Amino acid sequence: MAVEPETGITEGGTKGRFRDVLARDHARRGKPPVHFADMTADERIAKASELGLPKFRVNQLARHYYGHFDTDAAEFTDFPAAKREQAAGAFFPELIHEVTRQVADDGQTVKTLWELFDGSKIESVLMRYPTRTTLCISSQVGCGMGCPFCATGQLGLTRNMSTGEILEQVRVAARMMERGEVAGGPGRLSNVVFMGMGEPMGNYKSIVSAVRQISAESPNGFGISARNITVSTVGVVPGIRKLAAEGIPVRLAVSLHAPSDELRDELVPMNRRFNVTQVLDAAHDYYRATKRRVSIEYALMRGINDQPEHARLLAKRLNHYGDNWVHVNPIPLNPIEGSKWTASKPEDEAAFLDILHRAGITATLRDTRGQDIDGACGQLAAKQR
Ligand code: SF4
Q1: For binding S-adenosyl-L-methionine, which residues are annotated in this chain's numbering (predicted)?
Q2: Which pLDDT score, from 0 to 100, does residue 46 have?
Q3: Rounded distance from Cα 377 to ligand 1 centre (Å)
C-alpha cells in the first residue's frame, strides 16, 4: 500500500467534493530537526540525560527559551562551559533562517521571509500599534485550500510546519520587541494571530501545542494570554469543534468571504465540503463554548462579494444566531498581480459597513498594515520562488 505523505491533508478533506491542492514539489520531505518545543517533558529529560545533564538543567533551558527568548550557547552562563554548545545544538537546532526583512509603516511593521531546513519558505509579519504588538505567523508551507484570489493558495500545500518551526517565529519576534529592534523602543509582544501562510486546522496538533506554549506562563511558555491569540480557519468544521473542546479561550476567526453557498463555492473551495450553514453553526457553537466573540473575516472584492445584497444577506445570516456573538472584519483585498480579483472601491466598502452596522452587527474595516510591502498573505514567499 502506498504510504501517505506526512503533510497537512485536511481532515474530512480528501473525500467528497473538496481535496487539498498540493504543491508541484509536494512530496515526503523528511521531518524538521526535533526542537525543545517539540519534546514532551519526559523527552527533554531523556535527551538531557543522554548528554549527561541532570533534570534541573532542563528547567534552566526552559527559562532561557521561554523567559529570555535565548537559544544561543553563549547566553547559557548558568551552564557548565563544556556543555553549553552541546546542549544548544541538541535542544535548539536552527529551524528558521532569515532570508529577507522588509519594513514599512515607519518601521512599525516588519515582514520577515524565513527559510526552513528543507529550503521551504514561509513568512511572518510583526505589527506594532500604540497599545499592542501583534505577530501574524504561518502554520503550513503554502496552503492546500486553493482560494483563487489568494497568493498562498496558488502555491498549493507543500507540508505542515512542526511546533518548533511555528514557535520559533514567536520567540524571535518577542526577542526583537524586548531588545527594541522595532521602531518605538523596547516593548512586549502581546498578540499572536495564526493568519499567515496555511490553514491552521490542517495542522491541528502542532498549532494546538504551539498555542499552549505561547500562552503558558514562563518557564513553560511565553506567557502571552490565550485571549490574545487568534486561530483562523477557512471553515474546517471538525477543527473548529475540536478547538472548542480544548478549553483554551483563544479567539476564532472564520474567513467567510461570501454569505451564500453559490458564491462561496467559487471563492473558497472548502465550502463544497463544509457549507456556510455548517461553518456558521460550528462558529456559533464555538462562541457558546468559549464565550469569545468570533471574528468573521471578509475580503472585499470589487463587484464580486461587496455589493449591498451581499452585506444584507451576511447580516441576516449572522443575526439568525442572535446578537453580539460576532465581529465582522471586512478587509480590502490586496490583489495578486494580473488577477481578476481586485480590491473594492472605497464607497462600496463604506456602504457594506454601513449596512452591517444598521443591522446591528459590530464591524470594523480591518487596517491593511504592510500593504506597501505586499502584506497580503503569501505574496512575499510567492515572489521568492
Ligand atoms: S485565503 Fe487562506 S485558506 Fe484560502 S488559500 Fe489563502 S491562505 Fe489558504
Answers
A1: 198-199, 232, 255-257, 334
A2: 98
A3: 8
- Could you tell me if residue 344 is inside a domain? yes
247 and 151 belong to one structural domain: yes
- 220-274 pLDDT, tens per residue? 999 999 999 999 999 999 999 999 999 999 999 999 999 999 999 999 999 999 9
Strand partners, 123: 113
Is there a domain that residue 15 lies in?
A: no
Domain boundary among 91, 114, 132: 91
Sign of CA dihedral 42, 44, 45, 46: positive
> From the alpha carbon of 143, which atom of ligand 1 is closest?
8
Residue nearest to atom 5 of ligand 1 (CA): 153
114 and 169 inside one domain = yes
**How much is the pLDDT for 150?**
86
Of the candidates 85, 115, 123, 165, the residue annotated as catalytic is 123
Residue 64 within any structural domain of the chain: yes
| Structural domain range at position 114 | 96-373
Domain edge (last residue) among 53, 73, 91: 91
Annotation says 377 is catalytic:
yes
Report pLDDT for 371.
Answer: 53
Q: Known catalytic residue: 98?
A: no
Tally of domains in the chain: 2
Please write the tens of the pLDDT for every residue from 74-101. Answer: 999 998 999 999 999 999 999 999 999 9
pLDDT < 50 positions in the chain = 1-3, 373-376, 378, 385
**Side chain identity, residue 10:** T
* Cα(89) to centroid(ligand 1), Å: 35
Smallest Cα–Cα separation from 287: which of 243, 222, 345, 338? 243
In the block, cell 511593521 appears at: 109
Question: Measured from the CA of 257, which atom of ligand 1 is nearest?
Answer: 1
Residues placed in the known binding site: 143, 147, 150, 198-199, 232, 255-257, 334
Atom of ligand 1 nearest to the CA of 234: 3
Alpha-carbon torsion (7, 336, 121, 218), positive or negative: negative
Q: What is the CATH number of the domain that holds 184?
A: 3.20.20.70
- Ligand 1, pocket residues at CB < 6 Å: 143, 145-147, 150, 152-153, 199, 234, 255, 377
Q: CATH number for the domain including 61?
A: 1.10.150
For a ligand 1 pocket test, name from 21, 123, 150 the mutation site with the most ligand atoms within 8 angstroms of its C-beta. 150
